[in-house]
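Running log. JK asked me to keep both predictions on one page so they can be read side by side. First protein, sequence followed by its tokens:
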Amino acid sequence: MTEFLSKIEQLPFSMWVLQSPYSTILFMHSIGMALVAGFNAVIDLRLLGLSPKIPIKPMERLYPWMWWGFAINAVTGTSLLMGDATTKGTNPDFWVKMVFVFSGIVVLKIMRKKVFGDPQLDQGPVSGTAKGLACISLICWLGAITAGRLLAYVGPVSGLPGLKN
């Protein structure tokens, strides 16, 4: 596995990522995260009862923004991974992050179908299913963000084979 990850790091694109636009890519990754996790949190918190006078159905318009954020993160995250594949690919924290991200995306899709597909949405109290999905969603995105930040502090250190935090 390490040999495969090392070959990825040696690709011209991977080296270019580290030499030129690394900070720009990292910044764009943060923007994508703000879109997907931020707008998702807005919906989740509303479903959990925050600001009950604000209707929920119009918040469905945030979904295209969340998908754009996810697309930005997929491209920038892959680029960042390629530039440091041997470090990130062998770090268990990276895989924890990926489980949270993909779980969050699954919940996002289920929520759109079950919550926003409900014709009775905004005509009564929020269902227990919607509240449960909102809680799970918040946990997924908080977990993904936390695990992502911990990548810099847990496991192998970039550029220094064998050194760990």
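And the second, directly underneath as requested:
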Amino acid sequence: MHTIEIKVRGYHLDLYGHVNNARYLEFLEEARWGYFEDTIGLDRFVASGLAFVVVNININYRRPAYMNETIQVQTWVKSVSNRSAVVAQRIVLKETDALISEADITFVLLDEKQQKAITLTGEIRTALESLIESAPQPA
């Protein structure tokens, strides 16, 4: 599992004084970039004209996050199939591990030249399968 920390700032908040629901998608994206950079590396895929493209996001909001709280975004690969993979993510409050949100993000590997999803095979499939983990247990 890969974890990043984010301190909630005023610009993350909505009219009600808690993190706006759309901001969580940005937090999740930031964590996915960091996860893939730190594990399989993205440079070689970008250079080869391949891109990870999100095709579905399912997110559940469990608790609001507020100004000056520090959250942790946990990321891991949940599953890999022939045409897609699922990354699971969870946002927790750093101080207590209280669950803020959880999400499953399905992505495909896009051949940018052909503008179509390609089958997950070879080195990329092996790399993704090596990252599969079960959901972490609450502390």
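Observation for JK regarding the second prediction: The first helix runs from residue 21 to 38.
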